[in-house]
């Protein structure tokens, strides 16, 4: 249908011919038309904004718009037959037809919204993740345009289909006086680590205890484990420090029966606190190693707190009793301050003096472990699908993703469908701690598993599913949530900007961290978070296990980041790409050095501070009037006085003036400085009220590099 030409402006003026417009509208409404013909009525939705403009793009006055509104006929309640233009759009869509259909749908939606009763605005909403503007508007019972307006006034331009993160949702709720509460989805809040179901009770059997060795660095944890296993693993460790978790099982003969114990070896360095905490969470018994010649140290206290928080029984191994200066009783006394009282002193904690080097009392220690395990009645159901925890994971060039899994319930078989964190895969092969291929792993055993699609995070729970489709779906959902979580963490929100504004200008150090295994990466990230970040902040763009790849180089070049490699290597072509792009790549194999360098880099971002540096002190011995002022005759008692330095005048312990030393003379001659033991004359332009006995303190302001102190 060809639209009637909009009315023209009257010649010689800018007034609208209102009567002509109203007549034309009546013609559109079917009340009359050119040459007596009836014109088909135009739907309200076809009446676009352009219909309210003349050919030159000028707005029709409000009075005319009101007339247009009055002139439109009321819509019948019954359903109208489809218009030819809509039918044509369905048969052969065109841009014009699509546009009309869109307007028609929008008009229908607006009419439905007007017909619906308005909901009261809630006092509180609960969100589990990001929401679009439309979804948030529905939750808050407001128009989506209202939310767009609020965010626009706050400096954020958003569309109604754009996702809003939780801080932004909270901001909108605050503006609308609605409380926003965050909650985890029920599926994620569900504890997968609930290892024993009601159905398992009929099939429970005794299982080997899982033991974690904990304690301070250099107290002999790895050596003790070596003595038990009769193999040495400390020689290959950088600096003698265990860098990642290992799991080993040993056979013990006790009461004419063969028993097994599974050991988790957690590193002793304080940076691996998170790994040690995870070890205490999956373990049944904690062996606390304390050196008899050193006593309780800070990491010893950390290990105790982790084990006690996990409600894990503690057996204390007082090591190095063969060394000079060993005082086992002093160690026992120190441990009583942390709730560990030895049995021989009336307590409940088993304490065994041992020598890892000479192998003394190791049999006694193992017997005590079996005794505690027997009291704990450790059991599991081997006839069910396996569940457990990822002890360690890394990416191997030849094998792909490799994960060390600790089975806590059920039995894991080759060919099982496995979901570990967000990683999914079919178990292709399993290798035990002695390098032998196995087809099944029963409860309490740790095995290396091949076949996962990705490297899971150390500490993730794993579970076996019978249905491959279900397993793949769960892994995909977890991956999406982790990806979204990382995006939200890296996004700058109004809340963080406000906090930065209060703290002053915030500087960032962009880092990309690649490590040999996921446990090391997690530990380093945890240590870096302990560095105070009020004025300078570490922005971790990527932290993962694996080689330094060309993709990492590209990301660092685009974001101005520094790449930190810990016990890892370059992928093919990555080193050359780093040189060409000018990316700074730092390689480390000792975590102490890594943390020192990062802290130094952060301190370099701090603005230097001005500090007062004392120069010297003198006493006023005489006052000489000169013109309208006075000169103080002084004796330099200590240090030196320097011309144009700052000075402070004290009289009777109180400061009477602070300013600048304008003139300094020595025997009527100008002097640049006067040292201790000499007399001099001092003149200050703005102070002449000298009194004999005044003390003048000279100092200067110097810039000093600021330092950061690691929080504990």
UniProtKB/TrEMBL annotation:
Positions that bind GTP: 215-222, 265-269, 319-322
Biased composition regions of type Basic and acidic residues, renumbered to the chain: 15-30, 105-124
UniProt name for this protein: Translation initiation factor IF-2
Entry's Gene Ontology molecular function annotations: GTP binding; GTPase activity; translation initiation factor activity
Matches recorded under InterPro entries: EF-G-like_DII (IPR053905), IF2_II (IPR044145), IF2_N (IPR006847), P-loop_NTPase (IPR027417), Small_GTP-bd (IPR005225), T_Tr_GTP-bd_dom (IPR000795), TF_IF2_bacterial-like (IPR000178), TIF_IF2 (IPR015760)
GO cellular component, one term: cytosol
Annotated organism of origin: Nostoc cycadae WK-1
TM annotation in the entry: none
Localization per Swiss-Prot or TrEMBL: Cytoplasm
Gene label: infB
Function according to Swiss-Prot or TrEMBL: One of the essential components for the initiation of protein synthesis. Protects formylmethionyl-tRNA from spontaneous hydrolysis and promotes its binding to the 30S ribosomal subunits. Also involved in the hydrolysis of GTP during the formation of the 70S ribosomal complex.
């Amino acid at each position: 249908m060809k639209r009637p030409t909009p009315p023209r402006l009257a010649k010689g003026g800018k007034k609208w011919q209102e009567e002509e417009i109203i007549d034309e509208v009546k013609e559109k409404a079917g009340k009359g038309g050119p040459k007596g013909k009836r014109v088909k009525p135009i739907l309200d939705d076809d009446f676009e904004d352009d219909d309210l403009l003349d050919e030159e793009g000028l707005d029709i006055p409000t009075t005319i718009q009101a007339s247009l509104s009055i002139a439109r006929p009321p819509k019948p309640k019954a359903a109208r037959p489809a218009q030819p233009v809509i039918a044509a759009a369905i048969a052969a869509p065109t841009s014009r037809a699509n546009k009309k259909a869109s307007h028609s749908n929008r008009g229908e939606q607006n009419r439905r919204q007007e017909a619906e009763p308005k909901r009261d605005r809630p006092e509180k909403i609960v969100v589990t993740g990001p929401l679009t503007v439309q979804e948030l508007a529905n939750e808050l019972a407001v128009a989506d345009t209202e939310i767009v307006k609020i965010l626009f006034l706050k400096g954020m331009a958003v569309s109604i289909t754009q996702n809003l993160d939780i801080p932004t949702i909270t901001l909108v709720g605050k503006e609308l006086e609605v409380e926003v509460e965050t909650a985890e989805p029920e599926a994620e809040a569900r504890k997968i680590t609930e290892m024993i179901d009601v159905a398992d009770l009929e099939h429970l059997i005794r299982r080997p205890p899982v033991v974690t060795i904990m304690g301070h660095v250099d107290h002999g944890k790895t050596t003790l484990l070596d003595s038990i296993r009769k193999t040495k693993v400390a020689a290959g460790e950088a600096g003698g420090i265990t860098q990642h978790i290992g799991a080993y099982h040993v056979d013990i003969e006790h009461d004419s029966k063969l028993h097994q114990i599974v050991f988790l070896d957690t590193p002793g360095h304080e940076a691996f606190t998170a790994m040690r905490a995870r070890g205490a969470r999956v373990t049944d018994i904690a062996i606390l190693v304390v050196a008899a010649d050193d006593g309780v140290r800070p990491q010893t206290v950390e290990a105790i707190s982790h084990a006690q928080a996990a409600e894990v029984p503690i057996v204390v191994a007082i090591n190095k009793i063969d060394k000079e200066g060993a005082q086992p009783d002093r160690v026992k006394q120190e441990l009583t301050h942390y709730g560990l009282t030895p049995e021989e002193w009336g307590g409940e904690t088993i304490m065994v003096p041992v020598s890892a080097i000479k192998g003394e009392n190791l049999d006694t220690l193992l017997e005590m472990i079996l005794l505690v395990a027997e009291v704990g009645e450790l059991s599991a159901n081997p006839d069910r699908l396996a569940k457990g925890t990822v002890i360690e994971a890394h990416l191997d060039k030849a094998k792909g993703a490799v994960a060390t899994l600790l089975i806590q319930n059920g039995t894991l078989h080759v060919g099982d469908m496995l979901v570990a964190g967000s990683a999914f895969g079919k178990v292709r092969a399993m290798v035990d701690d002695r390098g032998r291929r196995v087809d099944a792993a029963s409860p309490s055993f740790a095995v290396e598993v091949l076949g996962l699609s990705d490297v899971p995070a150390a500490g993730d729970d794993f579970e076996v599913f019978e249905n491959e489709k279900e397993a793949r779906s769960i892994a995909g959902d977890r991956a999406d949530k982790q990806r979204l979580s990382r995006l939200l963490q890296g996004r700058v929100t109004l809340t963080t900007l406000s906090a930065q504004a209060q703290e002053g200008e915030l500087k960032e150090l962009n880092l990309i961290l690649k490590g040999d295994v996921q446990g090391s990466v997690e530990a380093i990230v945890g240590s870096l978070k302990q560095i105070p970040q009020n004025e300078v902040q570490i922005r971790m763009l990527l932290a993962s296990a694996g080689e330094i790849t060309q993709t990492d180089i590209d990301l660092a070049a685009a974001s101005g980041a520094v790449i930190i490699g810990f016990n890892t290597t370059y992928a093919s072509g990555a080193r050359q790409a780093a040189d060409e792009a000018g990316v700074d790549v730092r390689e480390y194999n000792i975590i102490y050095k890594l943390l020192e360098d990062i802290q130094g880099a952060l301190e370099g971002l701090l603005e230097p501070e001005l500090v007062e540096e004392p120069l010297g002190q003198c006493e006023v011995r005489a006052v000489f009037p000169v013109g309208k002022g006075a000169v103080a005759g002084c004796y330099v008692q200590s240090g030196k006085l320097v011309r144009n330095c700052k000075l402070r005048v004290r009289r009777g312990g109180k400061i009477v003036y602070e300013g600048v030393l304008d003139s300094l003379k020595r025997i009527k001659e100008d002097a640049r400085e006067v040292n201790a033991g000499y007399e001099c004359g001092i003149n200050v332009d703005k102070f002449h009220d000298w009194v004999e006995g005044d003390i003048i303190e000279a100092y200067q302001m110097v810039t000093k590099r600021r330092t950061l102190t690691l929080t504990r």
